[in-house]
C-alpha cells in the first residue's frame, strides 16, 4: 500500500461511521489516512434482505451495484451491512482488506475475497454480552408479567389480577434452563443465570464444559434430553443446515407442561407454528421472542395475538457498548494487518 491510506466506511444508524473513524485514528496514530464515509438509512428507512437467491450473500442492505462507485479507490473497506460480492470486488482494484462488523461475514462473498488475496476480518462476540443480558431480561419479563403489568397500568388500570396465584410466574431459582448453543452468548447466559440459582443444562456438540462449570453444577445433555428436562429452553446456535428447524414440533412436544421458550438467535431454528399450538393448548406457559421467521412477521401472524408471549423487534444485540466494541475490534485488526501481523479475528 502507499503511505496514504484510503479507507472507506459504509455505516448506518447503528454502526455509525464516526465510531469507526474515531477508533481508527486512535489505533493508527501518525498515519496519513483518507477516510471516506457513507451512511445508509438503516434501520429507520431501508430494510435488510436476509436471503436473495440471486446473490451469494445474506443479511444485507441494498444491492452490490449501489456501492460500486464508493469502492473504486479504496485500500480498506469497513462495512456492517453492504453486500460485497465478486462484482463488488471487480470495482475495487486496490482493495487489500475488508472489515465487517458482524459476528460472521454473511454479507461478504468470501470465496471471491480469498481468490483475490483480500484479507477479511470480522467481530465475533461483539454483541455477546448485549444478547445474553437481553435473553435474561426477556425471560424475567415473560415469567414475571412485566410487560403485561406495564400495559395494564399504562392503560389506566392497575392489573391486580397479576397478584392472583393462578397468574403469578415462577422465580428463576425454581427453574432448570436448557441452553442450546454454547458459544460466546450461551456461555454468558449461563454465567448470568448462575447467581439466580437456576439449574443449567447445555447442548452443544462442539463444546466441552470446563472443570469450573462442572463444579458449578452445569450439565451437558443431548438435545432431546435437554428438551425433556428443562423448564426453559433458550436458543443460541448459529443458523446452519444442521440447526435449521432443530426446535421442531416433535421436540417442543417433549417439553414439560408449563415450560418456556426464549429465542434471541434466528427464527430459522424454531418451528413457530408448533410453538403457537403449544402455547394455545397450554402445554407451554409462555415464550419470549426477539427473532422471527418470516421477519418482520406479518401483521396477521397468529403468534402476535397471544397473551402469553413477550415480543421484541430483533433488538437483543442493539447496545451502545456493542457498537463501540465492534469499531474498536476492527480498528485493532486493521492496525495489525498494516503492520504485517496476523489479525486477531480473521475470516477463513
UniProtKB/TrEMBL annotation:
Residues 137-316 form the D-isomer specific 2-hydroxyacid dehydrogenase NAD-binding domain. GO terms for biological process: L-serine biosynthetic process. This is Oxidoreductase. Keywords: NAD, Oxidoreductase. Belongs to the D-isomer specific 2-hydroxyacid dehydrogenase family. Residues 70-342 form the D-isomer specific 2-hydroxyacid dehydrogenase catalytic domain. GO terms for molecular function: (S)-2-hydroxyglutarate dehydrogenase activity; NAD binding; phosphoglycerate dehydrogenase activity. The lineage of its organism: Bacteria, Pseudomonadati, Pseudomonadota, Alphaproteobacteria, Rhodobacterales. Gene3D superfamilies: NAD(P)-binding Rossmann-like Domain (3.40.50.720). It comes from the Bacteria. It holds the Pfam family 2-Hacid_dh_C.
Amino acid at each position: 500500500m502507499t503511505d496514504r491510506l484510503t479507507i472507506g466506511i459504509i455505516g448506518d444508524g447503528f454502526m455509525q461511521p464516526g465510531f469507526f473513524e474515531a477508533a481508527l485514528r486512535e489505533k493508527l496514530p501518525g498515519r496519513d489516512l483518507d477516510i471516506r464515509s457513507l451512511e445508509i438509512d438503516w434501520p429507520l428507512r431501508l430494510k435488510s434482505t436476509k436471503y436473495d437467491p440471486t446473490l451469494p450473500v445474506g443479511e444485507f442492505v441494498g444491492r452490490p451495484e449501489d456501492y460500486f462507485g464508493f469502492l473504486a479507490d479504496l485500500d480498506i473497506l469497513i462495512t456492517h451491512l453492504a453486500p460485497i460480492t465478486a462484482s463488488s470486488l471487480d470495482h475495487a482494484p486496490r482493495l487489500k482488506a475488508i472489515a465487517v462488523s458482524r459476528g460472521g461475514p454473511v454479507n461478504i462473498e468470501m470465496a471471491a475475497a480469498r481468490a483475490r488475496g483480500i484479507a477479511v476480518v470480522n467481530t465475533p462476540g461483539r454483541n455477546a454480552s448485549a444478547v445474553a443480558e437481553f435473553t435474561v431480561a426477556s425471560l424475567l419479563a415473560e415469567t414475571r408479567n412485566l410487560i403485561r403489568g406495564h400495559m395494564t397500568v399504562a392503560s389506566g388500570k392497575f392489573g391486580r389480577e397479576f397478584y392472583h396465584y393462578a397468574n403469578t410466574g415462577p422465580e428463576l431459582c425454581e427453574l432448570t434452563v436448557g441452553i442450546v448453543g454454547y458459544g460466546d452468548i450461551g456461555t454468558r447466559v449461563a454465567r448470568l443465570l448462575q447467581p439466580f440459582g437456576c439449574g443449567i443444562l447445555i447442548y452443544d456438540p462442539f463444546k466441552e464444559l470446563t472443570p469450573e462449570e462442572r463444579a458449578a453444577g452445569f450439565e451437558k445433555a443431548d438435545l432431546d434430553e435437554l428438551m425433556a428436562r428443562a423448564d426453559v429452553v433458550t436458543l443460541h446456535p448459529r443458523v446452519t443446515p444442521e440447526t435449521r428447524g432443530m426446535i421442531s414440533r416433535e421436540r417442543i412436544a417433549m417439553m414439560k407442561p408449563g415450560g418456556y421458550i426464549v429465542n434471541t438467535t434466528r427464527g430459522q431454528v424454531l418451528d413457530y407454528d408448533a410453538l403457537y399450538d403449544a402455547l394455545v393448548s397450554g402445554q407451554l406457559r409462555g415464550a419470549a421472542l426477539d427473532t422471527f421467521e418470516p421477519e418482520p412477521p406479518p401483521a396477521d401472524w397468529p403468534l402476535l395475538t397471544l397473551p402469553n408471549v413477550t415480543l421484541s423487534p430483533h433488538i437483543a444485540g442493539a447496545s451502545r457498548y456493542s457498537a463501540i466494541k465492534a469499531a474498536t475490534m476492527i480498528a485493532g485488526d486493521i492496525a495489525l494487518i498494516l503492520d504485517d501481523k496476523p489479525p486477531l479475528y480473521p475470516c477463513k
